[in-house]
User: What shape does this take?
Amino acid sequence: MQLSVIILNYNVRYFLELCVLSVQKAIQNIDAEIIVVDNNSSDDSCSMMKERFPNVKLIENKTNFGFPKGNNIGVAQAKGEYICILNPDTVVAEDAFEKILNTKNWQLNTGIIGCKLIDGTGNFLPESKRGVPTPWVAFTKIFGLYKISNVFGKYYAQHLTENQSGKVDILVGAFMVMKRSLYLEVGGFDENCFMYSDDIDLSYMVKKSGRENYYFAETSVIHYKGESTVRDEKYMKRFQEAMNFFYNKHFKRSLFFSGFMKIGAFVFSKIKKSQQKNISRAIDNYVFFSKERIDLGLDKPILYCVDFKDFVNDCKKNTEIIFDTNSFTYKEIIDFMEKLKANNITFKMYLPQSKVIIGSNSANDIGEIIKLSKIE
Assistant: This one.
């Protein structure tokens, strides 16, 4: 088998459904499997998987083991030569895996390959490519110096633009492709870290093994990002613990550095918590892209379109665009989102079988799920 896609889920039932639907299309021409590991969700994620996707391997953990152990459990049962670690709040294009598996970047010393991630509004997520967060690099990130000049741009690997492929040090755990043998060689995700610095640690371990990690800009994946994690006090505590874990593991200890990182992690986690919220905005009208005439029962005017070329942005109106996922490919939707992104436009996905509209309005939005009870 060529590829195993590992999706670790925790309480994001509708985003998981959308993710698996997109992955199924993306592996149609590949000898591949999907493995969903559920970390003891309290929603109906598992029952949905059994009903909607009976051919997908489902592992039901009876405890929330965290990100590292949860993924390690999935990889242990994987059969693919390559594995993809994939977040449940993602949407992949139909050609994503074929492009990455066929890229010329797979050389003898290739480590992990990641790709361009965009948020729910079509905007690029800079954490798609990063540098090793050494004390100095972490300082430039925490205090925003990377925004001033590319001289301070190592945290987000600003030697590459979002549309340039090339070598980077660190890739994000929302989407990572690598050989399963390499994953096992470096020990997989370190289970001493519950979450948050695990992808940094794995990328760094692969780099220390002599391999090169690559950012691949020729395919895009939507990462709703904030959906699976509410940034509460528990989040702040675990984030600080995660950063301390990484620095204690890979860098020399000193009282000054430990104190600085404790303060920095606290400030950074406070900022993250303050950023996350449900971002509501006034919507003047909806545009529904669908091949079928479906009454969504929404409370504002709806313009129905069957082709993306039919839409012209009226910058005076706050428009929410809804995509019928049965009518268009995910690649078409992703390309359209990247091309059309604008301050007055938000995007959502309509899942016909579950009769819900889902999406998010920013990288810091915890996501929105609209259940459409009026649809028969």
